[in-house]
Design a protein that fits this description.
The complex is a heterodimer of chains A (340) and B (330). By secondary structure, chain A is α/β, with parallel strands linked by helices. Chain A is built from ten helices and eight strands. Classes of the chains: A alpha/beta (340), B alpha/beta (330). At the A-B interface, strand 2, helix 5 and helix 6 of A face helix 3, helix 4 and helix 5 of B.
Amino acid sequence: MSVIPKAHPAQRGVEIPEATRLRLYQLQVEIRHCEKRAYDLFLQNLVKGTSHLALGHEAVAAGFAAAMNKDDYTFCTYRGHHHTLARGASMLSVLGELMGRQCGLMKGKGGSMHLTSVEHGVMGSYAIVGAHLPIAAGAAWSAQYRGTKQVSVAFFGDGATNIGAFHEALNLAAVWKLPVIFCCENNMYMEYTPIEQVTAVKHPAADRAASYGLERQVIDGNDADIVYSTAGAAIAKARSGGGPSLIECLTYRHSGHSRADPAKYRPKGELEEWLKRDPVALYRARLLAAGISEAKVAQIEAESMAKLEQATETAKASPTPAIETAMTDVWADGGNAWRN
Amino acid sequence: MAQLSYRDAVAAGIAQEMKRDERVVLFGEDTAAAGGVFKTTVGLFEEFGPKRVKDTPISELAILGAAMGAAMTGLRPIAEIMFSDFLACCWDYVANEIAKTRYMSDGQITLPLVIRTANGGGARFGAQHSQSVENWAMAIPGIKVVAPSTPADAKGLLAAAIRDPDPVVFFEHKSLLADKGEVPEGEYVEPLGKAKVLREGKDATIIALAAMVPRALKAAEALAAEHGISATVIDVRSLVPLDARTLLEHSARTGRVFTVEENPRLCGWGAEIASIIQEEVFSALKGPVVRITTPHVPLPASDRLEDAVMPSVARVATEVKRALDSKRAA
């Protein structure tokens, strides 16, 4: 906990309008509700396979999504439900995909680890650690080439900082001055192993920034205001031709790595300490302290829960995909033919 | 028609498509200012400029990742992986990312990109710079696999690959780069997925790819001249999509089928083709499909050793003759 830094210079004195703050809270609450529901649906065996919940990471997703334009690009990891929801994909389409239903974002063809919603700028969730960083750089290059002013954001875990693709992407992005932001969600564990045990530097992302001529940025990833402000500054820089940024958000996952992981490797009391800094609770308290009424906050929560209940029931009632779906869309013509 | 080398025909195909479509971009290691280590991209940097023709660091992951990100957001990238052996460095992008994303996204994402790479042996480069790896790519759903054997096809098939809406791995054969041939001038596109029948015979059907095509042709000429054996020779050209109909038709016509493959023995492309032929025209066959391949060893560097393991004109002719003789004897 002692590692949480004070606010980055980029956030000092930044005033966030009330409407944005309410939006930041709404996004965090919706993610929290939906992720908890995903867990419940596992227990009911309605979600099969694996899933990697982002409980505890809500502020990173909300802060970035609120700072991004509609046509900006998001690239996620297998832990990508929160970003997909934050960019605007519906709870129904996400839960439906987790449940392998026709109503899912990809009709059950991708599953939890590959959520994609191009209409919301979510250009895929990638389950090979680090693979999407160069892909995000490529999308940024395309935006630069086309002169669209779009920005590309790649979210990844601390574990991805030790894989080659991380370094290749950062170097290329710096050399080509690409409008891309690399956002590390450092939750202190690469799967089951503490990141500090397997990394040469204390801050796995930020302490590598200097290697690529980038500013070292470590921020409190559980504070949506700080994430929003830092993301906004990096996005503005990228949009104006200033090149890439690397931001390390310190956060903590409240659950294990995946469905299979009870997270017994965590020291006693660590989770409890971090729960005191639960991003959703923290933000709720901040809104109240800022004079926003309990009724307004409760209304956001109730609306989110109502949306969730409806999404859950609709997803449960949705049919499974037709078997023929398994044979479609290998190729751009919609089919799978490899011979005549 | 112009006389062009295979390497110049590659550049001509790229130039044709870059002129036609602003979305086409080209990049790789030493691809731009240096014109490529194999001189297959000479003049493109000068003609199209640094925005469209770019040098990259030695970062195969970044090259294919960037190609993929660019392709899904409106560009038509041509990425060069210097030697096909290096595809192993970035195989994640070929096998897991580029091949599967259209399917996993239920068609939301389309990836019109080309991965060009120098493939094959004969240059005495040893085991890490000489492999024929087209069969690796063929094994993955979602990737098209093309390997031209002539300068005309290098231009025409590459143009088609660039226009194709799906990802194509385009294998340029190192030992064919200096070969010259007639190449149509002006806009020239050869459709993917069509095998080419180069000569027709009645005794045997020889199916070959890339550098094995000229060897198969020479072997067929020798068989005709020395033994009165007349052989059909087919250039597969495109493994995915595969023109199975043409292969089946000509296999059934002669009843004796031979594949000539540069890849090592196990799971070479000819194994799949042999399987299709025996399943679908078995009753027309007069003997087993015979695969003539590099043995299952890494490629050695010494010219004497490399020549000994790669299928040669003499070996193709000998194996065809032996197979036909043994059938006659039986």
